[in-house]
Amino acid sequence: MKIKLQRSDKIFEYEVPLNGVTLLEALGYIKENIDSTLAFSSGCRSSVCGSCAVRVNDKEVLACAYKPKDDDLIQPLRNMPILRDLAVDMDRALAFNKIAKAWGLPKEEALHVSGEDAKRNELQSDCILCSACFSACPVYSVNEDFIGPFALTRSLRYVNDIRQKDIKPTIEAIQTNGIYDCTLCNECVPVCPQGIAPKQDIEILRNKSGIMGYLNPNILAGFDDGLNF
Amino acid sequence: MVDVLVIGGGGAGLTAAIHAKKDGANVALVSKTYPTRSQTCMAQGGINAAIGADDSIQSHISDTLKSAQGLADEELVGILCEHGVDAIKWLDKIGVPFSRNKGIAQRKMGGASFVRACYAKDYTGLKILHTLYDQCNAYDINMLSERFLIDLAVIDGKVYGAYLLNIKTSTVELFHAKSVILATGGYAKVYGKHSTNHVGSTADGIAAALRAGAKISNMEFIQFHPTALKKSSILISESARGAGGYLVNSKAERFTDELASRDKVSLAITNEMQKGEEIYLDVRHLSAKFIDEHLPQEKKLADLYENIDLTKQLIPILPAAHYTMGGICVDKNCTTNIQGLYAVGECANHMVHGANRLGGNSLLEIVVFGKIAGEAACAYAKKEMPACKVDKHKDILSQINTNPTVDFYKRRAELAEIFYTHVGVKRNEQGLLEALEYIQALQNELKNMGVKNIKLAYNTELAEFLEFKNLVLTAKTVVLSALRRKESRGAHYREDMPNKDDNFSTDTICYQENDEIKFP
Asked: Which class would CATH give B222-322?
């Protein structure tokens, strides 16, 4: 099997004499047998640690859950600095979790959570922070401060949690460079290995924000345009 | 200079960091991978706590002691189980999305007298880890990733910080700290492809602690999970058997109690394999709906790695190294024999698992002892104001051979095979001596190994070489300890001495002095 890897600004071709293996196993073969300078990230090999996301033929996948075919082009994720080859620096992307204030803010007293309550944020809490959605998001080409899909999904996880004492700090944190900067283009949805739909989560957060009295700045901007003619 | 430096970003490290910070310490957390990528995310089954109406803390204690086969400390097992209920309450409070029925959903794990393991689908570890990570953000804890522990800075038996390799730049950084908590995970990756573990379970903290003069114990006790996929050692969770899955041989015969503790089931499988049988896990009789709801990851992984549909086909399995019971000696406050140095989680031996860990007790261990370690390290840092004696960056990189004549990747794979064969589920004197001879030859050969990649930016070959050196040192302690334990107990099974011997109802403790492993 012949696979192509983008390393820095060049494309390299490697012949991997293995069949039916995952892309991650193929990358391991190249590193251990052909070129030990190859860099990529890996961890659990079973799609829960979120380390090994890359792009294959322009689509984000987990290398441990993808079986490569002849002539596949493997590239690093976008919207993040490349450390080397397929390894990217996640620091700035992960910092958006903090900017979004996506965390538990517990009530003093313990609360009974029903099965139905638990379903409200079960899917959002399946996120493995692989950054596939972050890489697929086109907003970063115009706004590099966009809080982005995974951090906003994480916000909804806590906003929808009945144990949360106060959802206002999280809602407030995602008004600027947040829910209204998303173009609802849907690019983040098909690439999620966990079947999460950040775009939908962002729409739900917009509704919740509206109910809480936050205004969509784009609508205000629209009025401004309207008064100009 | 920070009050508390936590090394390791898994569940134990994050919990320790949160509690140290809560108590007022200035905390930094460093990890070689991003925290949410740690081994903890792979724990599927659950976290034990006696919260069920019929269950009791006493029953949890006695199940744990029984499984430990005389090597656990009753007081520490008591601490673990008594704090279990509060640990679950705390996790529930900070937002862990447990599965629910009437209350938090629980399932039965092997060796447990009651339905005791609280779970969140088959993502229990993942969801606990991510929730803890979010709490670290809430507490504004400084988390620095891509930092590999090179060595602890220890002078005269007291810790002053740690030397870390910044993997992004290949520079050595000295972190000054009043106290250091090691939460660096276990050593199952000495078994390489015969381990279910994350690639990072390479004993970095245990090896650094040994080099710094710490005592370690019970290294010979390695838990083999009975059901790893045959080709890849990817784990099929115990919940598959908990839910009624069968173990069968090539003749489709069941040959063991599937819900016995892991040491017994792994041994039964190995015995069967030695008769020439292939072993399979059979879940075909469970409903498709049940599998979709409770074992979705298993279904996906069986398809990906074995090309089978587990609702219709048998799953080929093998035992694989899964959890390492041995580790750095600590007391009930997670204190090591080095002043200011604490250890927690799989890198430590908290004396609660003994000769065989019960499923669901390790997630509990990291939360219960994570809190204790964080609080103890904070209290120590408040009390102690040592003048910092270390200031020089250790120049380790210039000592790395950049013209290696021996390929360490090849040796890493060989070591894994030798360990699986001779230091696996079944052991004997001759095999252990062969393994020891191999390791001694490896140690002599290490000077001829090194890295071909001399670039500074994100040199993962360098990090993997340092991991390999840690594995070799740790492997030696495992074999030497296994040779000394001339009996069979829990996960340590000697074919040549198949019975338990009361003369060995003690811990195997060792330390390093002048490059020699010594047993006091």
From this structure: alpha beta
Residues in chain A with CB shorter than 8 Å from the CB of B95 are 103-104, 106, 158, 161, 163-164
* Nearest chain B CA: its distance from A18 CA (Å): 13
Residue of B nearest to A120 (CA): B97
* B123 shares contact with chain A (CB less than 8 Å): yes
> Are A43 and B199 inside 8 Å of each other by CB?
yes
CATH superfamily of A91-221: Alpha-helical ferredoxin (1.10.1060.10)
pLDDT (tens digit, 9 = 90+) per residue, B254-266?
Answer: 999 998 888 899 9
Contacts of B197-201 with C-beta under 8 Å, sequence gap 24+, read B197/B39, B197/B42, B197/B321, B197/B322, B198/A43, B198/A44, B198/A49, B198/B37, B198/B38, B198/B39, B198/B42, B199/A42, B199/A43, B199/A45, B200/A43, B200/B32, B200/B33, B200/B38, B200/B39, B200/B467, B201/B39, B201/B324, B201/B346
Every domain of chain A and the residues it spans: 2-88, 91-221
Instruction: Check CB contact of B49 with chain A, cutoff 8 Å.
Output: no
ipTM: 0.96
**Fold exhibited by the domain A2-88:** Ubiquitin-like (UB roll) (3.10.20)
- Interchain CB contact of A103 with B (< 8 Å): yes
Q: Give the span between the Cα atoms of A115 and A113, in whole angstroms.
A: 7
Domain with CATH 3.50.50.60 in chain B: 2-220+323-383
Give the tens place of pLDDT for each residue, B115-161: 999 999 889 999 999 999 999 999 999 999 999 999 999 999 999 99
Flag if A37 and B455 touch (Cβ within 8 Å): yes
CB contact, 8 Å: B304 with chain A?
yes
Q: Are B352 and B361 in contact (CB under 8 A)?
A: yes
User: Domain B2-220+323-383 maps to which CATH number in 3.30.450.40, 3.40.1000.70, 3.50.50.60, 3.90.1300.10?
Assistant: 3.50.50.60
